Inverse folding.
């Protein structure tokens, strides 16, 4: 049986010629049911944007939460990733990280705000990411406190450059995070070797709490895959928008 038309997704695709990255990058913009350009909406910026849409089913989850649970409707922006350069752009010590953060803050965000009625305060912008996408989301919030304060982290890859950065911060009470990590993520194969995501996320949680951040932290049965993260996206969306 086909879904009722009210559950159909509205997604606009746009392509930006990025000066910062010297490349074109796609953006996918989800508009909620009942979208009205005269209203204003909180906005979710997703790293690995196409993956959040296709594998995370974030648009489908959001539609259902809005229509069935009366969740506040957001606009969702999926940012394209260059998989060959993902680590270089998403790692805070990567050689293209500075270029990527310029793309997000100086090109993608201004374009979205010029085209759609998104709210423009750091409390109304949410950064979302999985693995290294969670890492770059947290670092963007650390680097640009005037822009971002909310982070949705799916098994964030919080390696020692991130933990050292958190240790060096004095006050992170401005931050609000939703963190989820899988109990089976104790030896995830990465380009840096096998990583124990559980231990790294626990260390990040302790540092964030010690510095005054607000966070909802959860460990659950699951591996480092979208099949796990997809199931926990509704709770994360409810946390920020419910």
């Amino acid at each position: 049986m086909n879904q009722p038309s009210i559950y159909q997704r509205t997604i606009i695709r746009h392509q930006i010629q990025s000066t910062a990255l010297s490349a074109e990058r796609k953006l996918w913009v989800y508009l909620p049911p009942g979208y009205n350009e005269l209203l204003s909406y909180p906005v979710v910026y997703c790293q690995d944007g196409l993956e959040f849409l296709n594998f995370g089913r974030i648009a489908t989850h959001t539609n259902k939460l809005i229509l069935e649970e009366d969740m506040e409707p957001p606009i969702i922006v999926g940012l394209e990733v260059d998989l060959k350069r993902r680590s270089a752009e998403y790692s805070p010590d990567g050689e293209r990280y500075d270029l990527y953060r310029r793309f997000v803050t100086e090109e993608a965000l201004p374009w979205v705000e010029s085209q759609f009625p998104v709210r423009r305060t750091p409390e109304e912008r949410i950064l979302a990411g999985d693995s290294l996408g969670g890492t770059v989301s947290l670092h963007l919030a650390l680097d640009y406190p005037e822009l971002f304060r909310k982070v949705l982290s799916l098994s964030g890859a919080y390696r020692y450059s991130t933990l050292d950065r958190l240790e060096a911060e004095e006050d992170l009470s401005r931050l609000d995070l939703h963190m989820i990590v899988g109990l089976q993520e104790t030896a995830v194969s990465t380009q840096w070797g096998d990583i124990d995501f559980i231990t790294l996320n626990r260390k990040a949680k302790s540092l964030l709490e010690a510095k005054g951040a607000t966070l909802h932290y959860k460990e659950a049965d699951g591996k480092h895959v979208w099949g796990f993260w997809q199931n926990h996206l509704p709770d994360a969306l409810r946390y920020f928008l419910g």
Remarks:
- The radius of gyration is 17 Å.
- The first strand starts at residue 10 and ends at 18.
- Helices lie at 49-54, 58-69, 86-90, 97-115, 132-143, 160-168, 197-210, 226-241.
- The chain has a mean pLDDT of 96.
